[in-house]
Specification:
Blueprint lengths: L1 H12 L4 E2 L13 E5 L5 E6 L6 E2 L3 H5 L3 H24 L11 H25 L6 H21 L3 H9 L10 H15 L4 H14 L15 H11 L15 H15 L2
Parallel strand pairs: 1-4
Antiparallel strand pairs: 2-3
Helix pairs in contact: 3-4, 3-5, 3-7, 4-5, 6-7, 6-9, 7-8, 7-10, 9-10
Length: 267
C-alpha cells in the first residue's frame, strides 16, 4: 500500500520515485501501476503509470529480518506470474503495457516459478530465523523483480481477478495480497483444467510454506454459495483480467472452480 501510494503520488506530482522496500511481500516495487481500493477495502481499479520506478533498492539483510509470513505472501503473489502469463500468451491477450507477451517476458515468468519451487521452502526456514541465505536472496529477486517484470510484460489473467473478487468477503480483509493470490492461482488451474501434476505441485508448494489452499484457510468458515457467486461475479467484471484466459469465462465457471479448488486444497 505504501509503495503504490508513493508511485501514484509521484505520478500526479510529476516527480521521480525511488522505491526502497523493507519487505518482499508483493511484486509492487518494480511495477508501473498502483492498485486502488475503495474505503471499504474492495478492489476498485488499476492505475496504469507511464513508467516504472526510477530506482528500486533492496537491502536483503533488512528484508530477511521481516516476519517470514510476509516473504511467503510475496511467493504467493509471484506464484501466479507464470500461469497468468502463459494464459495471456495462449489467448493473445495484451500485457499491462498494452503489448503482446514476448519470449523474454515468458522466460522471466518461468524463471520466477522455477526459483520459487527450487528455493522457496529453504528461504522460509532461513526467514523464520531472520537470517539471509542465498535461497532468501533468490526468493527476494523472484518475488520482486522476476514477478514484477514477469506479470507486467506477460500479463494478468484469472488468479489476480479472483483475488480481486475475494476482497468482497470481509473475512479475507486481514489476509495479505499474496495469500489471496495463491488461492486464486489454484482456482485458475482448476478453471483451465490444468494437469493434476501441475495442480499438485502448486498445492504442495503452498502447503509447505504456509500459504492458504482452501476457503477455510482464508478465514471463510461457512461456505455460502450466494456470497461466493458474488465473488465470482466481481472476478468476472467486464474490465477484469480474467477475460485474458484463452476461453470464455463466466461467474458460474469461476464459482465451480472455487468450490473444486477448495475441496481439493482443504485435504
Amino acid at each position: 500500500k505504501t509503495l503504490d501510494t508513493a508511485k501514484a503520488l509521484a505520478y500526479y506530482s510529476n516527480l521521480p520515485v525511488i522505491i526502497v522496500p523493507t519487505i518482499a511481500s508483493t511484486d509492487a516495487p518494480c511495477s508501473a501501476l498502483s492498485v486502488l481500493y475503495t474505503d471499504d477495502g474492495i478492489f476498485d481499479e488499476y492505475l496504469i503509470l507511464p513508467s516504472n520506478p526510477n530506482i528500486v533498492l533492496m537491502d536483503t539483510e533488512i528484508i530477511a529480518k521481516a516476519p517470514a509470513r510476509l516473504l511467503a505472501s510475496g511467493m504467493g503473489d509471484a506464484l501466479a506470474t507464470y500461469f497468468e502469463a502463459r494464459a495471456c500468451e495462449q489467448s493473445g491477450a495484451l500485457n499491462m503495457g498494452g503489448g503482446l507477451p514476448t519470449k523474454a517476458a515468458m522466460a522471466l515468468a518461468k524463471l520466477c516459478f522455477d526459483t520459487l519451487i527450487a528455493d522457496g521452502e529453504k528461504a522460509m526456514f532461513a526467514a523464520q530465523k531472520c537470517v539471509c541465505t542465498k535461497a532468501v536472496e533468490n526468493i527476494i529477486e523472484a518475488n520482486t523483480y522476476l514477478s514484477g517484470i514477469g506479470f507486467e510484460s506477460g500479463g494478468l489473467a484469472a488468479a489476480h481477478a479472483i483475488h480481486n473478487g475475494l476482497t468482497a468477503l470481509e473475512e479475507c480483509h486481514d489476509l495479505y495480497h499474496g495469500e489471496k493470490v495463491a488461492f486464486g492461482t489454484l482456482v485458475q488451474l482448476f478453471l483451465e483444467n490444468a494437469p493434476m501434476e501441475e495442480i499438485d505441485e502448486v498445492l504442495f508448494f503452498c502447503k509447505n510454506i504456509g500459504l492458504p489452499t482452501s476457503l477455510e484457510d482464508l478465514g471463510v468458515n461457512s461456505i455460502e454459495r450466494e456470497k461466493l457467486l458474488e465473488v465470482a461475479k466481481l472476478a468476472c467484471a467486464p474490465e477484469e483480467t480474467i477475460h485474458n484466459m484463452p476461453f470464455k469465462v463466466t461467474p458460474e465457471k469461476v464459482l465451480a472452480a472455487i468450490l473444486a479448488a477448495d475441496n481439493y486444497g482443504g485435504y
